[in-house]
Amino acid sequence: MVAPVRGWCFMKRIDKHPILEVQGEATVPFHFNGRELLAKEGEVISSALFAHGIDVFGHHVKDRSPQGIFCANGQCAQCLVIADGIPVKGCMTQVREGMHVTTCDCVPELPELDDPPAAFKSVREIETDVLIIGGGPSGITAALELARHDIKVLIVDDKHRLGGKLVLQTHSFFGTVADCYAGTRGIDIATHLTDELKQHPSVRIMLNATAVACYKDHRIGVVGNGEYSLVSPRKLLIAAGAREKALAFPGCDLPGVYGAGAFQTLVNRDLVRPSEKLFIVGGGNVGLIAAYHAIQAGIGVVGLVEAMPEVGGYKVHQDKIKRLGVPVRTSHTVKCAHGKDRVEAVTVAEVDADFKAVPGTEKIYEADTLLIAVGLNPVDELYRQAERFGMDVYSAGDAYEIAEASAAIFSGRIAGRRICRALGKEARVPDEWRERWEILKRKPGSTAGLKVEIPESGLFPVIRCVQEIPCDPCIYVCPKDMIEMQGDPIFGLPEVVKDECTGCTICVAACPGLAITLVDLRREGPHASVVVPFELLEDRVVKGGQVEAVDIDGNFVCKALVEKVAGRKAYDRTLLVTLKVPKEDATRVAGFRLQDAALSARIDTDSPCALDDDAIVCRCERVTAGEIRTLIREGMTDLNQLKILRCGMGACGGKTCQSLIVRLYQEEGVDPRDVTPFSRRPLVAEVELGTLAGEEEET
Questions:
Q1: Are 67 and 197 within one domain?
Q2: How far apart are CA 305 and CA 319, in angstroms?
Q3: Residue-wise pLDDT tens digits, 554-578
Q4: Is residue 397 part of a domain?
């Protein structure tokens, strides 16, 4: 086995970032297993521990296996710790001054209580026209539509600020400039939408609050700041987003294996660098973007694998990480993760047409973190409850259909207008909104070959946006109107239609996909200048230094001299790097490699993968694939029967394992339609009994 690639107690805070502003010092003292540590104000326990290099939060009572994080979104219970004597989810619980946190290594003993009987208070009742569960892009835009019609709205969100996954996105968004902030970074979209929402007095916001149940009397139970409330809305909108899918393979339960969203939470929200060598499974936009965010944070990305023959995300996202030196292997999957207490290495293998690993194709790489980015499932339990009880309920965003954030913005607007009409307001959903929504939900279209026509002036942009995706900022920013969309006005391909370039470079900086370069062939001699976009720290490229220039796919083109590094406020934190290259290579140069190829080199190890049957499927109760397969082969088709193994009986309530179990049924030749799902719990999240009962805090 390779040696562990990270220590236990060194600080991992990000003190400098190319896009994000680093704010505040860690000044809040707390204790972990008796050791005094410091957290930032408002920081959650899991991030504070990661900042100190602590990624093992406890050991499972069943087999003493180390436990870390997985979702960092409150959907699982991998990060369970004991805080001041109470079991809590580390990813959802903020550190308080003087808090004593310990690992959760056993079932806590209940103390003997000699106190007088507890006193209880009345449950707070709240009435509102519309209750929106989820404060992401769809929830906010729905609230804005409702507020413009003077409808009272209550937004409930379980985070400390609104914005949903937007607050994790440092890259510029795709979509349309006119309708969904294309060309603006996700973090800034979140701020803009939140500021706009706060201008409407008819909107009330409950943060750090979780909707836990819908009831037959059409009330919604909400827990926030230790208090239980019952909300009676006339209309209900579920905009709770999505949870990440898991994968079952030997070692999938090791600390260091977690979702891409959890990684982005640590890196982009909490500015913690949890990894040194990262490997990613999944080539959708989530996985591709996570790789890019890792490099922005100074983390090495060893590689990315995708089981399909092509990545599912946008080609421009794939191109920019390949240019930086990240290998992307399609028709590959993860076979196992190696390590004792945390991930130390990863084995991947090629897959055949049936997505089965091909024996003899295994490759092993050193890594301390393995991100799972294989898709999302809608968080729709409350929608199903409300629907069953006959409530007038709507859904929007990923809770309705998994798509990009730009589509979620339109989804929220449409849901908001629909609810307005249901409340008797004069409001209609414009046909163009529906059309735009359908366009923004589309998967990437066909890919064309790159064509570069060299104009006579010798100064011109090269646009490498060769795949049909919804995006249009480049056609608006050129002061000479040189760029036009060919075909669909949103989903088409941009093309340079005039020879009037002034060299302003605005298009280079404005492209969300970093897919435009500016070529200047006017200089005398054998060399040309190429201006490329750069969104990493300025100290990672040195004026006067030499770099390896690469093409659109990351293939080496030539050695290039860095002539200039320009950063302007108007470029929204995008640097422009001018490279001196041979003229014959100028139109091929799309960027330059940063990562050393040695980072992605295979390693030799004598650690074979465990059997697939050893893979943990139910994380909460430590149930293996082999145990479940045995019962499937005995004819059990009701998932509730699998509770004999305690499947689905853990803290997450089957949210993580159900889709994995259904996949096992498919592998055993059972039609998923013949499988009865787990019975849904009355409460969709854990609640302290004292809170649910309305116990007075002082007793």
A1: no
A2: 14
A3: 999 999 999 999 986 668 899 999 9
A4: yes
